[in-house]
Amino acid sequence: MKTIGVLTSGGDAPGMNAAIRAVVRSGINKGIKVMGIQRGYSGLLNGEIFELNRSSVADIIQRGGTILRTARCEEFKTPEGRKKAYNVLKVFGIEGLIVIGGDGSFTGAQKLSDEFDVKTIGLPGTIDNDLAYTDYTIGFDTALNTVLDAINKLRDTSTSHERVSIVEVMGRRCGDIALYTGLAGGAESIIIPEKEYNFEELCKTIIEGKHRGKVHNLIVLAEGVGGAEELAKKIEEVTGLETRATVLGHIQRGGSPTAFDRILASRLGARAVELLVEGKSKRVVGIRDNKIIDLDITEALSMKKETDNDLYNLAKILSF
Fold it and tell me: How far apart are CA 145 and CA 155, in angstroms?
């Protein structure tokens, strides 16, 4: 293997730059030329490709986002689009491709390898932590700390005004951000897509807390369950307590990555290069029990993400 490419696809996540850095420097260390592909699969189709060297990735480990940029690409989802991508890879002499992204990005890598002679390796870069095969994804820990900082600040003003605060966080199908930050932030209620919740019970909990002398109430809501503004109105109507909603939105994607995400991204990026050198393809790398693992991309994509019930139950116990 003489030349490999690296791209970031889908939503950006803190730590992607650390992964790019690891891929580039590990590749160069093994005598491999590393090509950076800008704007994901869209940039691949357009030939937005350039060589990366050690200096190209200097001073980026602490930066959020991705220096390679990222974009969605509908054309790549078609057989004709992937054929075009393969031809572009051939023109640049790229034999192996490392894709940093989520399940949609992995599906693209899988199809590219299935249809053409291109070796692909996937790195889990998504703040949602919604890939079942790995304990943690790149960017998840940083997003948790960003949300937790917001919760801490909201708790101050919520206490001052003796109100109910609803914090809406990212997570359409996976409620890990809400679950982890809800527990760490001492939320009275955590609402996630994987668990049904009873609105009447929620209001009862709020009212009982008020009678016990609680001066505020914090609810962490995953966006996949519904809107925070609508829920705030309903709670205020039933309980009579002032209720405010805060939607954190894309602020969760930004910021300098935590030490955990930098180290995780570095370990995964280096392992991805090793797999290509070993001649492996259609693999994804991840972490389980603090050990770097890799497995077949098809198997990884077929695995169902399970909620940590122990963590969820602990959060409920500690909220009272």
Answer: 15
